[in-house]
Amino acid sequence: MGAYPEPQGVLTPLTDAAVFLVVTVRPGGEQTVAGLIPDLTSLLRAVGFRLPEGHLSLVTGFGSAVWGRLFSGARPAELHEFVELRGTRHHAPATLGDLLFHIRADRMDLCFELAAQIMDRLDGMVDVCDEVHGFRYFDRRDLFGFVDGTENPPGRAAIEAAIITDADPAFAGGSYAIVQKYVHDLDAWNALTTEAQSLVIGRHKLSNVELPDDRKPADSHVALNTVVRPDGMQQQIVRDNMPFGKAGSGEFGTYFIGYCHTPSTTEEMLRNMFLGQGAVRHDRILDFSTAVTGCLFYVPPIDFLDDPPPLPDMETATAPEPQVTDHRAEGDNGTLRIGDLKGVR
Ligand code: HEM
Predict the structure, then answer these.
(1) Which residues are 239's β-sheet partners?
(2) NCBIfam families, per this entry (predicted)?
């Protein structure tokens, strides 16, 4: 692995609070966004320095549809739209999103302040698709009551999983983020026994210990997300999921975010979850959890943000066609329909 530019705070350890902000750029808003991009690191410093022990971090990502509107020159090799998945029972929708701001800190006031400063700069030039405020829930449990994040790769393995290196030299030091907002059916979940819940996830609820292979169902979440290459190497992603909710309106959820040096690993996990694998039709977790958003972003390294390529000449710039792989050729169940991405944007 050669030297590469310094990544944004992709590998920031799990924090106690997070804001996930996804927006689209209005036609004519390109200049304003381009003006903000080189200021992002100083905005982060300005807010974060007021409380260094709060560990404020910011990751900014760019979606496929906006790339050619903001930057002249080359595109990241694997930047494409989120691929909608339609299984026999469950659906992973592709939803709108040009810019992702993943803001993390140990205190919500820091996240909130940075989000507010960013939105102030973008005022009138973007539309907010989704804003989720996530919180730490006891010992890093999700709202299903399970510890979430245990098998994240540590240290060097995390860098290898998340950061682009030699495969795309012009975009090395970057990463790909896939986000999905999941809403839980807690009534149905709480109707299960603790033992049955453990079989859905593939780990013991209280102790967090993984179930032995001979007791772990093939449709459990852990079994379907353990992706091993033919050479025996496990394919990993870095997840920074956060619980969110509104007790008053009965909304309980998990905001999924997975970083990887290639979107194909996360996409393979999603296919396993929504389309199944072998005789398994879908991940059991989906019987209690509905995906309501789905977006894919390239996350450039810090140098790129500080000194981005110039805006394209919009007279000559043409919107790039979304690169969509038709996975139907790979599947054996014939149930996958790739969404009409132009239709959902
Ligand atoms: C409702 C949304 C989700 C919830 C509540 C959830 C929760 C969990 C929990 C509790 C674990 C076990 C502990 C751990 O290692 O973190 C886990 C593992 C994992 N999840 Fe999820 N998850 C969700 C969505 C996803 C999605 C969408 C993906 C991938 C596209 C994913 C990928 C993984 C992976 C790779 C593991 C580790 C598997 C292993 O090596 O043991 N999860 N998740």
Answers:
(1) 258
(2) Dyp_perox_fam (TIGR01413)
